[in-house]
Structures are given as structure tokens and as C-alpha cells.
Amino acid sequence: MSGPGLPQFSAADLAGLLTPAAAADALADALRGGLDPESCPRRTALAVPGGGELLLMPAASGSYAGVKIAGVQPGNPARGLPRITGSYLLLDGPTLRPLALLDGAALTALRTPAVSALALRHLLAAGRPPARLVLFGAGPQAYGHLEAVLAVREPAEVVVVARRPEAARELAAYARTLGPAARTGTAGDVAGADLVICCTTAREPLFDGRLVGPGATVVAVGSHEPGARETDTALVRRAAVYVESRAAALREAGDLLVPEAEGAIGPGHITGTLADLVTGRMPTGGAPGCPQLFKSVGMAWEDLAVAAALFEAAGASRET
């Protein structure tokens, strides 16, 4: 952390302050405290030269306000740079006095798996753990989601599917250090999966949705663009669909908007929201007899809730 002046928290400073489970608790507390994701300001996106995108995500709730300025540059990995960059400015809610500047990429890398973990707490049926997790992707979000899933329910087997075989092998090896058996695989492995996590930059479906079993849960977090999707129409049409916010999903979730444009589903196809599950307006365990799909686009209220929890955790850490 920096010296006098506005406290600045690097990725290294933030590492270890909150587990994915603790970040999920912060999100749940915000929803149970009355935060309404449907009223959250929409994301502002600006195309920039070189094929990148600048995102502005403000939010205010309770004692805090804040804004994330994030860059998404698909060409960065080839330059040896992270695909997602940015910073988060946390403010005191009543006075709007700046409190801290947090590494935006590290914040995103924590809050996205935390959102998925919170959804899975309510969508996974009680009782036996999932026999097989199929994890699409091998980047930072894949690692974060692996740890987040293990905090909710440890599967017997993890199967990693990624474009680069060496990256898939590395993630599978890391998964084995955390407990479950793990191997690399193919998209066809979803046929025997209880849980499928998609955290990729794919713009087209990753697997045949007809292979997903009726009791399986699928989480897709890779895109917030209306024309990009990780899941196909076949899965969406037969699944009970849950989202962070109906308004946000119907603006940004290509996984839903593409099937709707095809005439396969209507805007009323969404079963429920994260707030419905967390506050008990809908039963846990998901709808019986069909797959469960949680589609996340990432929202500003989530960044604020996790940033505030990180700031408070940092303060508690300094006091002990």
C-alpha cells in the first residue's frame, strides 16, 4: 500500500484480504440489505483505438459510493500485458470524500467468482457434491472460479477445457493441489457434468447444449456483449435461467439476446434473479427437471460491495 495521501491498494496489497466466500458474503449482505440491482446504473462503454474498450461503472449504496474505470484490450495478452486493466475509486457515501484507489483488475478477478459462488450456493441442490466440474478457460477467471467453486462444494473431478493445451494442463495440475482429481478434456465432457463453468473470451458457443443433463448447473461469465455468447440456443431454451438483473441481462447478455433474436425464447424466459435467490423470494436448489443456467454480465453494485469489504478488511488488518 502507498504512503501518505489517498491510500492505493495494488493487486499484491489486495491478495489474501478476502476469500471468494467472504466476498460472496459481502454481496449477499448488500442484497439482503435492500440493494436493488435493477436500479443499478448501466455500464458506459467507449470503443478506443486498437480494438479496446473503456468501461465506466459507478454505484452508490449505504455508506459507500465508487466507480470502476476498466479497460478491456483483447490484444494485450500477445503483448505480455493483462487483458483487463483499470482502477476503482472508493468514496465515502455521505460526503463523497475519496477513501482509496484499488487495483481494478484484481477487484474484478475477485468479485466475478464471488458472484458465481453466491449463485451456486442457491442453485446447487443440497446433499451430494457435484461429481464432475467442467471448467472452460484457463486464465485468471478460471483460477478464481475454481477456488470459488471449491469453497461452495468440492467436486470429485475437475475437467479443464481450454484453447491452449499447455494452459489447460497447468490449471488441471493446480486443481489437483487443491484436492479433487483433475485432467484436461474436451467440450464433450459436459455430457457427464453436474457443473459447467464458462469463463472465456469466446464469442460463439463452447459446447452442444443438448449434452447437458437435466440436473446440471451451468455458469457463464465471459461476456457482457449482446453479440457474444458462451452457451448455445439449445441449452438456453431448455434451461431455467437466472441473472444478476433482468434489465442488465436484456441489455448485455448475448447468451440470452441471440436466442431471443432467433425467436427461440422471449424476454420473459428469465426464471429469476440473484436477489430472488438470496432473499428467499425463490426456492434454493433450482427448478426441477431441467438444467440451471446462471448468466452473469458483471455489475457496478458488485464491484462496490466487494471494494468496500476489501477496504474494511484492509483497515482491520492494519489494526491487528
Account of the 3D structure:
The chain has 320 residues and is α/β, with parallel strands linked by helices. The chain folds into 2 domains: 9-108 and 301-319, ornithine cyclodeaminase, domain 1 (2-Layer Sandwich); 124-298, NAD(P)-binding Rossmann-like Domain (Rossmann fold). The protein has helices spanning 11-14, 20-32, 104-123, 140-152, 165-177, 233-238, 246-252, 254-261, 274-278, 300-319; strands at 8-9, 44-48, 52-61, 64-72, 84-92, 98-103, 132-136, 157-161, 181-184, 195-198, 217-220, 240-243, 270-273, 292-295. The strands form 2 sheets. The chain has an 8-stranded parallel sheet. A 6-stranded mixed sheet has the order 1-6-5-4-3-2. Helix 3 (104-123) runs parallel beside helix 4 and helix 3 (104-123) crosses helix 10. The longest helix has 20 residues, at 104-123. The two termini are 16 Å apart. The mean pLDDT is 91.
Layout of secondary structure:
Layout: E1 8-9, H1 11-14, H2 20-32, E2 44-48, E3 52-61, E4 64-72, E5 84-92, E6 98-103, H3 104-123, E7 132-136, H4 140-152, E8 157-161, H5 165-177, E9 181-184, E10 195-198, E11 217-220, H6 233-238, E12 240-243, H7 246-252, H8 254-261, E13 270-273, H9 274-278, E14 292-295, H10 300-319
Parallel strand pairs: 1-6, 7-8, 7-10, 8-9, 10-11, 11-14, 12-13, 12-14
Antiparallel strand pairs: 2-3, 3-4, 4-5, 5-6
Helix pairs in contact: 2-3, 2-10, 3-4, 3-10
Mean pLDDT across residues = 91
Strand content bin: 15-25%
Order of helices and strands: EHHEEEEEHEHEHEEEHEHHEHEH
Distance between the termini: 16 Å
Number of strand segments:
14
**Tell me, what's the shape?**
globular
Number of domains: 2
Indicate the CATH architecture of the largest domain.
3-Layer(aba) Sandwich
What would you give as the CATH superfamily of the largest domain? NAD(P)-binding Rossmann-like Domain
Poorly predicted residue ranges: none
Return the CATH topology of the largest domain.
Rossmann fold
Please compute the radius of gyration using only Cα atoms. Answer: 19 Å
Main structural class? alpha/beta
CATH class of the largest domain: Alpha Beta
Main-sheet strand order equals 9-8-7-10-11-14-12-13
Biggest β-sheet strands, sense, barrel: 8 strands, parallel
Treating each run of at least 4 consecutive H or I residues as one helix, how many helices? Answer: 10
Which bin fits the share of residues in helices? 25-40%
